[in-house]
Amino acid sequence: SINKVRLTGIDVFSKRVLDLVVSTGVLLLSWPFMFAIAVAVKLDSPGPIFYRRRVVGVGARPFDALKFRTMYVDAEERLARDPELRRQFEKNFKLKNDPRVTRVGRLLRRTSLDELPQLFNVLLGQMSLVGPRMITSEERARYGKWRMNLCTVKPGVTGLWQVSGRSDVGYEDRVTLDMQYIRN
């Protein structure tokens, strides 16, 4: 069984040290690869290399989570033009075969390489390597009674819901898995 326990004291310190050591190591080893990804993103479609997603962190403080841009710059307009896609997106905050995603973006998402820049967020102390998934303030409202619980820990680059099925996990199950991670 899983013991219900919150991280405190030395455990919080140890988790932070682990976050710093691992993220620094990965960034040092992967910078040439990240440079190649940046060039590929730039050559694939016009627009910035990075996408800044405004998300909620510890204490409900907002911050910009970095990702390699995987969508066309007019992604919101593309979504607005298709009512069925918009409905699917509003239901799950995800689309299976998203037409807004670029060719390079599909590969980056499939391999999760689009999330490598979030290691900078880890270095800044805004995220952890492992934690609940990051969400926007609008999405936080969907967490209902658990929304305060969500803001007690840093969002993670990866977490329980990602290793439990990623896009195949329904929204309610993602929320449940996030709460299970936080509580246990």
Describe this structure in words.
With 184 residues, this protein is mainly α. The chain is built from 9 helices and 4 strands. The chain has a two-stranded antiparallel ribbon. The protein is globular and about 50 Å long.
What labels would you give this structure?
184 residues, single chain, 4 strands, globular, mainly alpha, two-stranded antiparallel sheet
Given helix and strand content, the structural type is mainly alpha
Order of helices and strands: HEEHHHHEHHEHH
Q: What's the helical proportion of residues?
A: 40-55%
Distance between the first and last residues' Cα: 10 Å
Largest sheet: 2 strands, antiparallel
Tally of DSSP β-strands: 4
Number of helices: 9
Mean pLDDT: 84
Q: What best-fitting shape do the alpha-carbon axes yield?
A: globular
